Amino acid sequence: MLLSLSNAPRDYAWGSTSLLAELEGRESTGEPEAEVWFGDHPGDPAETADGSTLDAVTGGTLPYLLKLLAAASPLSIQVHPTIAQAREGWGREQALAADDPARNYRDANHKPELIVALSERFEALGGLRPVADTLRLLTALGESSGVRALRERLEGGREEDALRDAVGWILSGDAQREVDEIIAALAEASSEEFAAELDAVRAIAGRYPGDPGVVVALLMNYVVLNRGEAIFLRAGLLHAYVSGLGVEIMAASDNVLRGGLTPKHIDVPELLSVLDTTPEKVPVLLPATGAVTEYPVDVPDFALRRVVLAGAPQTLDIAGPAIVLSTGGEVAVAGADEVALAVSVGSAVFATKDEGSLTLSGAGEAFIAQPGS
């Protein structure tokens, strides 16, 4: 069975007023449009053509949530727990109301994520940079007491311990004077090696003046994706999307531990207990030269393929319930009965697991989401 899906954009403050409208070829509403959810998550299940919602069909059992994401300003710096951490935290917080702002765990699941760029440029922060590299970056900020204090916390000992100590200190609330000094030093900072990083963090500081998350961002890798490129963000990895339009898929979870660039609750001890401070670069996953790109991830919750159609139909096997999201051109989807269902850009089609395979036709681009293996 195939079902047409649509949904209204969510109006988070960081959302773009133009990116989703441009994708769909319509006039902008003038209001922020941040995310469109295609899934059965109870927070905002997708709408079916008969006026119902997808959770009425699936019973809320999809292990993944597929989204269009359009960021005009940075999202909060955040990290997600492993399944074991989520289960422990969920159990520990059972006495808290579901809407309690101090609650860290909304469910007992992990939340790995994959984001694929749809805009020609998509900016993100992902993972913590090696300490030696950050120390070189800090030389561009001069010798204020705040910069010296941060440098001292990063020097000596194991990198992982130094980074954990630095993040905890920045977010503690006791270092605001030093945080302000570091942010002020950004205005005149210059470095040939780290020019892009400094420009990005200066822009973030302009959006979030005085926020300790600006200094956390100085410790993170700055990543720029071209269209079709992707990054996978596993449990424990500190990250934030900065700007651009993308297709995002994640495990069906609301578990977020925040680390700055937000007015929302930040539980520093819990964040540090979940945070993986191993310094590493996030690998960029490149699009294939052929019609179908697979973005490999090592989680069972989801798998995502990008299909570029240029006249020749593409038939692809599906494992479990799938969602086909159109992101460009003219796309139609047919299942076992071979009746093609047109999918307008920015909308989707849900296929029940009994379909087994789907045939995509037309001239355009689509993404197929399904459970992982």
Automatic annotation (TrEMBL):
It is an enzyme of class 5 (isomerase). This is mannose-6-phosphate isomerase. It catalyses: D-mannose 6-phosphate = D-fructose 6-phosphate. SUPFAM superfamilies: RmlC-like cupins. Its EC number is 5.3.1.8. PROSITE patterns: PMI_I_1. Belongs to the mannose-6-phosphate isomerase type 1 family. GO terms for molecular function: mannose-6-phosphate isomerase activity. Its cofactor is Zn(2+). CDD domains: cupin_PMI_type_I_N. Residues 2-130 form the Phosphomannose isomerase type I catalytic domain. The keyword Isomerase applies. Keywords: Isomerase, Metal-binding, Zinc. Signal peptide: none annotated. Transmembrane segments: none annotated.
